[in-house]
Hints:
This protein is of the alpha/beta class and 192 residues long. The protein is built from six helices and eight strands.
Amino acid sequence: MLLYIHGFNSSPQSDKARITLTYCQTFLPQLKVYQPQLPSNPAAAFALLCDITEQAIAAGESLHYMGSSLGGFFATILAERYGGKAVLINPAVEPHLLMTDLLGLQTNPYTNEQYRVTLGHRSELAAMAPKAIMHPDRFYVLLQSGDEVLDYRNAVAFYHCCAMHIEPGGNHSFEGYQEQLDGIFRFLALTT
Length: 192
């Protein structure tokens, strides 16, 4: 199975999620692709992701993850805990540190859901944060130095022992993402 995990205030309707799903439907039609809409509460979101992963394990499926931004943070924890391979696109390394600037009312532009980011959300994310990568062979990290939301150097430092692709410029949404898909699926060992 492939579990695609969207970022903060995002959705399976994001460009990267839709491009990934189209690629899978075209080249890997037998692959089970999960793209859940995550709850806005971090603990509830992670519980949902763990449930999907544990059901895949129970069904004897191999595990593959793709995570963008906050989704990359969640994918990191899942791959470390359950095994499998993970591709991370401009991943958040310590998302709890960003929550202070996001406290208060938020609106998801894809779902129009309104919710509040609280200090409790920050604490939930801080409690989840891995201290180090224990299984570097499980990760392929894609970064663009022009990411306007996250400092890519934090990911370079945290994932320094992992396979990495760094491009100058770009942005948080990862410009030219579609051109990376063949390499992504080679790493995941899901090529046709």
